[in-house]
Amino acid sequence: MAWYAAVAYEDLAFNTGKTIRCDATEVALFKLSSGTIRAIQNRCPHKDGVLAEGIVAGEHVFCPMHDRKIDLMSGLVQAPDTGCVTTYPVRIEDGQIYIGLPAAKEMAS
Ligand code: FES
Question: Whose CA is nearest to atom 3 of ligand 1?
């Protein structure tokens, strides 16, 4: 696992997504009303809508392109649509949010 420094916890707005680039991977980062941080792949599995630009409601984000509803905890697209997005682990250290991605050699295997 490789950990990427994203943004300070205090600098991330509630219920508004932020695009974070971790080398070649684009991640959508969210701070929910509860204060929970979630990180998911930034592109919708339907037609690549930018999920960081979606509307957050509770623990879900609605894709800005065609309104598919995605669970930020599991990454699952909600019925009647199907599919899922990758979710990434996060940790907070000294007020800084870090996103964990598989290391390059883990992704190759
Ligand atoms: S691109 Fe996300 S719902 Fe169509």
Answer: 66
